[in-house]
Write the structure tokens for this entry.
Amino acid sequence: MIEFLQHSITGLMTGSLYALVAAGIVLVYKSTHVVSLAHGQLVAFGALFFWFFLGGLGLPFWAGLIPAFVLTALLGLAIERVALRPLIGQPLLAAFLMTFALFIALEGVFVLYLKGETRTLPHFLPQGNLHVAGISVPINQLIGFCVALLLFGLLSLIFKHTKLGLGMRATAEDHRLAQSTGIVVKTIFSYIWILSGIVAAVAGIATANVMDIYYMLPYIGINGLIVAICGGLDSLAGALIVGLLLGVVENVGAAYLDPLVGGGIKDVAGYAVLLLVLLIRPYGLFGLVKIERI
Amino acid sequence: MRPCGVFDKSYALDIAIIRTWQHWAVLISALVFLYLFPLFGSYYLISFINLLCISIIVVLGLQIVSGFCGQISFGQAAFMAVGAYTSSILTIRYGISFWLALPLSGIMAGAVGIIGGAPSLRIKGMYLAMATIAIHFVVIWVILHMEITGSFKGLYPMPPSIGGFEFDTDERMFYIIVSVVIIMTYAARNLMRSKVGRAFVAIRDNDLAGEVMGVNLYYYKLLAFFISCFYAGVAGSLWAHLITVVNAEQFTLLHALEYVGMLIIGGMGSIPGVFFGVLFIRILNELVMFTSPALAKALPWMGSSPAASLGLIAFGLAMAVFLIFEPRGLAHRWEIFKSSYRLYPFAH
């Protein structure tokens, strides 16, 4: 039992990372109806910028955090301005394919910068383990977990109670209707991408806190996509719950099934879950149910 | 549009793919040139064309399922892997000759593709694309965790042979690969004009309207996946016996993305577009390979071997440019060019 709990708690910690990555994807989808494949790259660049200021230049924590946020937000803005704005009015699939072109191009830039090396962040959070009733949790991961919960709370507050959030929700509903009520849709798009860049930076820093920055880091975006789709692309709560669940499923599955099949459950659990969810509830577990005949 | 002065006087002329004697002349001389090419072509060019042709077969399959039937699939690399492994296992373990293993691996990949295409019965568009990404990872995972596929070590298939004649060099494989490409292109071109092809296009343009007109969606969607994966499987088999090493590293998600990129640059819904797209990306890649050592010397911060990452950047940028400025791909430009020269001397 203790063992199971331990695996679940470790899974929750990983799951909070997935949820953080998925949050950015959900944000973009909520207002623009574009599913961003390139979000993993944004996350990786957030981590890389943070490393650059902290590990590369040796700045203190806060002095590194702010420029990392700003740079990632600028990258998000640049993606919107340069790549996605010309596609307004085109079919949504074109925008999806554009994010996939960005996925490849940014992947190239990322690999070019890393040159096959790994970068490790210096310890910027307290280290050590917290022991409660026989279960041990690394303190830095626990802090990451709390940050994820806080961020989700903050995002849902923004969406529910600020004028900007209302504008975003209106834009998600219908672009023309939103424009007729005086919301400038293009500005909302820019804000959304800036916000998603900041969320990506948080996710990137939280990820780099747990693992090294190396060429596979952008692929966490695919895990984020799995979570976002399973949660229902327009639901922040869904992203959080499914993210945590996926972390637990991966970890517990790996602990109990790996000896049976010879390892590697962690690599495939997410995809299996995605296929199941897509076949049973294509609109995700918590998403808005849109019935579409196929 | 018909060329000036060409009239369809009979039904046979109306449905002909190749309709003028100039067409025939160009086609036959191109084929003769292609088959004589190994006699005078350089080794580099021949191996380049071999890889080009294998990509063309894969992208032809992708064109059928994505371009004609409208089901975006990112799983093409995985289905190619299924074909490559099937062919290797059949020839190594069971001693079946390559000539039988080639279609069998296509059928095997097609069977896996039907399972992989099953989500298309419930979802479409971006959701289906994500499902095929998931299928890609599941297939590769299964391959890596099976005993018979040699797991992480991979397999070492033999080059094909016929009556003691070994196709063990790139020049010799060239004949097999080029012949398969010609057959597959002809098949795809004809299939798309048949009842099946029209059903695919109906599904792409409006699935509901298609169903009302009597297109069985389930049957035709799965058929599209089967045909597309059959192409991928055949390409995989050729690849396995050309390279004679098969491992999972050769079939990554990036490869699958690359095939979709070729399709977009070439133009969706056009058979010549496949050739343009593959040629464009492969030449772009070669250019990057060619220039990257000089670039690395001029810009030392890029490190010693920037070719792979520069290739990705160039590819991504090319795709972005095409999506913004010419979403219908090179094939559309080709159509414009064709109708303008057919109208000559009149203005287009």
